[in-house]
Amino acid sequence: YNEGYAGNQQISSARYRTMGDALNATGRPILYSLCNWGEDYPWNWGSTVANSWRISGDVYDNWDLYDARCPCDGPNAFNCELPGFHCSITNIMNKASFIVSKAQPGAWNDLDMLEVGNGAMTDAEYVAHFSMWAVVKSPLIMGNDIRSIAPKDLSILSNAAVIAINQDPSGSSAARRWMYETDEVDSNGKAAPQMWSGSLNSTTGGDYSDMVVLLVNGNSATTVMNASLADIFIDSGPSGTAKQVKMSWEVYDLWANRMSDEEASAIISSSSDAGNATTGYNATTVGAGRYNATKTSYAEGLAQNSSLLLGNLTTTVQPSGTVVATVDPHGAALFRLRALPTAVRKRDEL
Prior knowledge:
Low-confidence stretches: 277-281, 343-350
Order of helices and strands: HEEEEHEHHHEEEEHEHHHHHEEE
Family: Belongs to the glycosyl hydrolase 27 family.
InterPro entries: Aldolase_TIM, GH, Glyco_hydro_27, Glyco_hydro_b, Melibiase_C
Number of strands: 13
Pfam families: Melibiase_2 (PF16499), Melibiase_C (PF17801)
CATH class of the domain at 170-349: Mainly Beta
CATH topology of the domain at 170-349: Immunoglobulin-like
Number of helices: 11
Shape: globular
EC number: 3.2.1.22
Organism: Lachnellula willkommii
Helix content: 25-40%
């Protein structure tokens, strides 16, 4: 564990800095991932020592089950002195909500490895889990056995439009704008829909940043969820005063182009030794219509407005309008908003 070298931020930061100095002394580019499970508030000093830092006890494959071994779930979660373990997805996401401003290019809040594919959650929950980790810019580290990956799980983990949000060059984490409890409680007695939004690099070449909008349905029933432009752009002006609220926005669904089970199955089959022997081609050939980040980085693809990274255009939200989505229980809807050009009035119209 920490061998007694913990108890305050100075002790912990000095301990991990020793390792960081040794890594830097090699002269080689190395990503330094710091893990003290959120003890001694690493988000306050981690950026001076490492590239990422764990913010909580270990995650496990569950949406919102309470476990006494992972305390601090609620309005005081940011002040947790006992990281614990067996932390649910929503427990960790709640902890992250208080410290999103600590993330920056080259230094990230690490929400722990992904549970997608480990089998204890529903497909909708895995979609929401992957979406939440992506929008807060957590490292996306697969935690499943890729030798036995299911097609549905591959289609989640390989969604380039969602990964592009995580890899956006701006490095800006989304923030939770609202969360409230309802009567649609699940088997664990919980129900808390929430909305997150955050700025992205502009892909339109205009003056206004793209935005990511995440709607998470904590209810036990399918729910129609709404995110007003006033709430989405609250950081740019409270109570709907932001200039962006008076504009029109194209809405791109980032899960609409999710890989089919058939395509994912073909990729899995062709990636195996038996598949290569019988088909004569590999996974790269099968997935030729998918984004190849090895060939073109996400930053380059976004700069080129690659349609594979932007998602599917579904609608346009008019000024002072609302983004609306029907969301599965414990599921999520994820969108990229792109600004439409505003009309320039002639001099005699002013």
